[in-house]
Write a structure and sequence with these properties.
Elements lengths: L1 E9 L5 E10 L4 E5 L6 H8 L7 E6 L2 E2 L8 H5 L2 E5 L10 H10 L5 H14 L15 H13 L5 E5 L7 H16 L3 E5 L3 H6 L3 E6 L2 E6 L9
Parallel strand pairs: 3-8, 3-9, 6-7, 7-8
Antiparallel strand pairs: 1-2, 1-4, 4-5, 9-10
Bound molecules: adenosine-5'-diphosphate (2 copies).
């Protein structure tokens, strides 16, 4: 569960990115975050995994007060949240397998467990046959599937996807959506910031719309609501 109460966030340069956010997201929900560029969508998600810390307000994730986490406890906390980005962010010199295994090696899993986990998530995203490829040898959609596999390999309770289809053509975007829906069906909360009116209006979910650092709309099975 994610809960924010009266959250304000100002960047060091004085930009007010969030201007009083209160919201509650239950475990297992699928939530789209929509709104124009600069509305605060990324900042909103970054607060959830302690990439940024709010100036004011409380953020509770899985019963932990995120703002009060000690720096040494942040890495452990972050294992409960997977993140994927528009630009994939894979390590270019590592193979697909290594990109995913890396996330487990840093937490000292046994080699046998690592192998089993990596092959399982590769199977989930349909890329078992590309384990030895490097990112440059894959299409954009395949790279995003690797990024998703990496994000879920630790079995996080929450998956944050910041414009995951922003660099992909429509067909490939739908493949990514199908994978995100499968992950959601297994109980993982999905928070997806997106500019895709087509996806939001077709696959109806909760929609949180942001403008100027505030939530202006929060609807069950909502619509995109902006012109594209
Ligand atoms: P969105 O994801 O909706 O495009 P962001 O959360 O990225 O919105 O940005 C909200 C506001 O905060 C914007 O005005 C943006 O320019 C500003 N901003 C974002 N990141 C930083 C940063 N690291 N330093 C200063 N300002 C930032
Ligand atoms: P407190 O003990 O007051 O909770 P933390 O140790 O959690 O303080 O650190 C507060 C903030 O300082 C963190 O959110 C982080 O942004 C920054 N910080 C602390 N230690 C480091 C570090 N080793 N590297 C980078 N940033 C750090």
């Amino acid at each position: 569960m994610i809960e924010m109460q009266d959250v304000f966030m100002t960047y060091p340069n004085g930009v007010v990115a969030l201007n009083g956010i209160s919201v509650k997201i239950e475990q297992g929900e699928f939530v789209y975050i929509v709104g124009h560029s600069g509305a605060g969508k990324s900042t909103f998600t970054k607060l959830m995994f302690r990439e940024e810390v709010p100036m004011k307000g409380t953020i509770t994730v899985n019963n932990k007060d995120v703002s009060k986490l000690k720096w040494k406890d942040v890495p452990y906390f972050r294992r409960s949240i997977g993140v994927v980005y528009q630009d994939f962010r894979l390590l270019p010199k590592l193979t697909v397998y290594e990109n995913i295994a890396f996330a487990l090696e840093v937490i000292e899993e046994s080699p046998k467990n690592i192998r089993a986990r990596v092959m399982k998530v590769l199977d989930q995203v349909g890329l078992k046959n590309k384990a030895r490829f490097i990112p440059d040898e894959l299409s954009g959609g395949e790279q995003q599937r690797v990024a998703i596999a990496r994000a879920i390999v630790n079995r996080p309770s929450i998956l944050i996807a910041d414009e995951p289809t922003g660099n992909l053509d429509p067909d490939t975007s739908w493949e990514i959506m199908r994978i995100l829906e499968e992950i959601n069906a297994s109980g993982t909360t999905i928070i997806m910031a997106t500019h895709s009116k087509e996806i939001v209006d077709t696959v109806r979910k909760r929609v949180i719309a942001m403008e100027d650092g505030t939530i202006v709309r929060d609807e069950h099975r909502g619509e995109y609501g902006y012109e594209v």
